[in-house]
Amino acid sequence: MKMTVVLAAALCAQAAWARERTDLFNGRDLSGWTAVADQDVTGGYAASEPTWYATNGTIRTTGTPFGYLRTKRGDFADGRLHVEYRWWRETEKPNSGVFVRLSAERGTFIPTTVENQLCRGMAGDVLGLAGFRFAGFEPRDAYDPAKPLSGITKAPRQGADVEKPFGEWNVLEVELKGDTLVNRLNGVELNRVTGLSVAKGAIALQSEGGAAEFRNVWFEEVPVEPVVIKGIEVVD
User: Fold this and answer.
1) Lesser CB count within 10 Å: N end or C end of the chain?
2) Which one, of 124, 121, 85, 56, lies nearest residue 207 by Cα?
């Protein structure tokens, strides 16, 4: 009986570690994702292409109309998000973002979420959108559901611009633990915020005027600590 207990505990620990990583993009299509578009906000031009599509192992957005592509799964909590992105076509203002802990949709291009800014020249900023709050920073105005751009809280990046030249791939990693978020771009920590007001939510990629593409999108969940068993005597 004691041997059975030891083996069961060991197997449970191994299984927990084996379930760490979830690939969010299969490289072929947008299975597992849902597109949300705000047809009233087009980014200044009308594109004949779809807003979101998969091609050559990447997820592409034309950046218009504004909106986002979110995971159907909505309970991502603690862990590490890995996203690679680049700009694939020149636009007037290369702009996009990566949302985490998306908790409420508002019928506009801005949900309640925390954004890791990718806008050219601002990559690394962290924004609380549609009333999402974090510590140490105040929103520029009160959140009004009738005004999508109200209630935004901004934590500017700490450090220089480390985004690569146009057309080259960048690596964004976002670590989430409890109420703390840390983001790194191309291996450099640019932001650390605490007091996140939402504990879990969906992950999303933003369409906001920039023709961006994304690849190698995955989330590594915090594993259960292995069970360490000491001092158990195994008898026949």
Assistant:
1) C
2) 85
CATH number of the domain to which 71 belongs: 2.60.120.560
In three state form, how does the secondary structure of 34-89 look?
EEEECCCCCCCCCCCCCCEEEECCEEEECCCCCEEEEECCCCECCEEEEEEEEEEE
Which region among 30-39, 40-49, 123-132, 190-199 has the lowest average model confidence (pLDDT)?
A: 40-49
In a domain, 7, yes or no: no
**In the prediction, which pLDDT does 13 show?**
41
- Does residue 127 lie in a domain region? yes
Could you tell me the CA-to-CA distances from 204 to 1, 98, 207, 212 in Å, in that order? 48, 6, 10, 13
In a domain, 124, yes or no: yes
Position 15 confidence tier, pLDDT thresholds 50, 70, 90? very low
Mean pLDDT along residues 44-66: 89
Contacts 24+ apart (CB under 8 A), 103-106: 103/74, 103/132, 103/198, 103/200, 103/201, 103/202, 104/130, 105/36, 106/130, 106/145, 106/148
Closest alpha carbon to 102 in 51, 41, 34 = 34
Burial of 222 (0-12, 13-18, 19+ CB in 10 A): middle
The pLDDT value recorded for residue 112 is 97
Q: How confident is the model at residue 5 (pLDDT cuts 50, 70, 90)?
A: very low
pTM reported for the whole predicted model: 0.86
Query: Stretch 33-58: mean pLDDT, rounded?
Result: 88
User: Based on the number of CB atoms within 10 Å of its own CB, is 72 exposed (0-12), middle (13-18) or buried (19 or more)?
Assistant: exposed
